[in-house]
C-alpha cells in the first residue's frame, strides 16, 4: 500500500532568473516562454522568470506572458530587490517595475548579513529593516503574494552571533512597540518581512559555502523564531548554491529542519557553480521521502515524474547547454553500467546495482562494453541492441575476449556502441556486407592565395583536400572523387557519393561529432590515434571508433563502420 504523504513541498524554479546568471546561458524572450510552459507541465509551484525593470528582456517577458502564457498550476514570479536606501518604497523605480510586471507573485532579495548592509549597501541595519518592511507592505497592498530572499542568511548568522554583536527587537510598523525578538540580525530581517505580510522568507546560501548540518540548525532557528512571534503562516523556503558541491544536500537538510519551499534550477544551472538542481530535489523528495512536490494524486505525480529526463534534455537544448550525462537521475549516464561484476548481478536483478528504477524518472539503463566487461555485460548489451545471443557462453566469451584485446590496442567500445554491434554481429557471422572497399586515397594541398607566389604564414593560405574511393556495392564498381575542407571531409564525400546510388538512405546520415585522441603522445607524430564519430539520421544517433597510426586511416575505419551501422539501424537489406 502507498505510504501516506505528508503535506506538499513547493518546488520553486529559478532557471529563468538565477539559472540565467550562469556564464553563456542567455535566454531569449521566446526561450523563456517555452521554458515556463515546460516547467508548468512538469508541475512546479513557482516559476521565477526574471527581473523586470532591471533587464529589458525580462520586462518584455512579463508583458508578453500576460497574453502568451496560459499557465496551469504554476504561479509566475517577478524577482527584484527591496527599495534603495533613503528611498521610500512607493517612490522606488525598481519596486514600481515589479508592480507593473503584473506578476501575481513577487520575490524581493533583501540583505540579511549585517556586514553586507554596512559595507555593500553602505547603510544602517535599521534602514535596511525599513527598506524590507516598506517594500513588502507596498507589494502586499498591491495584492501580490510576496516572498523575501534573505541574501547571505547563513554567513550573516555567523557574523551576527559573534561576541559583542547586537541583537534586534522587531516592530510591526515604524514606531510601534516590538512584536518579536531580540534576535540576531538575519532573523530580524526575516521577522520584519513576515510581520509586514510576507508569505515566505527564504534563507539563501548565496556564496554556497555552508554545510548541511549548519543549514539545518539555522533553518530550525528561523522556523522557531517565526513560530514564537506567532508567524506560523509564513513559509520558510531554501535557496542554495553548489560552490561546495552540497547545494542539494543543504536544501534537503533545510527541509528536514522545517523548510517547505525548495528553490533551484533545472540541470543545476546558476551563478558560478550553479544552484541546487531542482530536478534532483524533486526526484529525491518524491521518491525517497514522504513529501509530495508535484501536484495530483500518486498516479498523476508518478506520471509527471516520469517526464523529468525529457524536461532536463529539452530545457538543456533551449539553453543550448547539453546536460551533463552524469546528472543524477536524468543524465544519459545516470544508469549506465560499465563494470563486468555489476553487469553479472544486474542480469539477475537490475535493482542490485541501481538506487531506483530509471523508468520512474523517464530514464533508461544502459550497458557499457569495454575492457572491464564480462560475459554478462556482453549479453546485456546485445539484448539492449536487440540481438539475441541465447546466452551462448562460447560466443559471449569470444566477444568479451575480442573486446578486451581490441581495447588494449586502443579501441574504446563504451563510447562506440555502433562498432561494438559490428564486432558482435561479425562474431555471430550475421554482419551483412553492404559494400566492399577496393581502395581509397586522400590528399591535401596548400597553395598561395591568388596574386601571391608563396604560402602565407598568417593562416590565409588556401588548403584543398581531395579523396578518391573505389568500392563495390549492389553488384557495381564505383570510383568516386570527393572534395572537402580536409581529407576526412573529402573521404566522407567520396564514400557517400559512391554509396548513395545503391543506398539512398545514407542521404539522411549526418556526422555530428568527430573526436581525435592521441593514445601514446610520447611517440609524437608516430603516435597511435583513436577517432570517435557520432552520426545521426535525425532520429537515432550512433557512435563508431577507428584506431590507427594515421589519423586519416583511423577516421576512415570509423566512417565506414558508421555507415554500416546506419544501414543496419535503418533495417536496410544489402543490395
Ligand atoms: C544574490 C543574487 O543573485 S541577487 C540577483 C542579482 N541579479 C542581478 O544583479 C541581475 C540584474 N542586475 C542589474 O540589472 C543591475 O545590477 C541593477 C539594475 C540591479 C543595478 O544596477 P545599477 O542601478 O547600475 O546599480 P549599481 O551596479 O551601481 O549598484 C547596485 C545598487 O543596488 C543596491 N543594492 C544592492 N542590493 C540591494 C538590495 N538587496 N536592496 C536594495 N538595494 C540594493 C546597491 O547598494 C547599489 O546602490 P547605489 O546605486 O545606491 O550604490
Ligand atoms: C537571491 C539569490 O539568488 C541568492 O542569494 O543566492
Automatic annotation (TrEMBL):
Pathway: Amino-acid biosynthesis; L-isoleucine biosynthesis; 2-oxobutanoate from pyruvate: step 1/3. It is an enzyme of class 2 (transferase). It catalyses: pyruvate + acetyl-CoA + H2O = (3R)-citramalate + CoA + H(+). Its EC number is 2.3.3.21. Keywords: Acyltransferase, Amino-acid biosynthesis, Branched-chain amino acid biosynthesis, Isoleucine biosynthesis, Transferase. One of its GO terms (molecular function) is 2-isopropylmalate synthase activity. GO terms for biological process: isoleucine biosynthetic process; L-leucine biosynthetic process. The keyword Transmembrane does not apply. It holds the Pfam family HMGL-like. Residues 9-303 form the Pyruvate carboxyltransferase domain. It comes from the Bacteria. PANTHER family: (R)-CITRAMALATE SYNTHASE, ALPHA-IPM SYNTHASE/HOMOCITRATE SYNTHASE. Belongs to the alpha-IPM synthase/homocitrate synthase family. This is Citramalate synthase. The lineage of its organism: Bacteria, Bacillati, Actinomycetota, Actinomycetes, Actinomycetales.
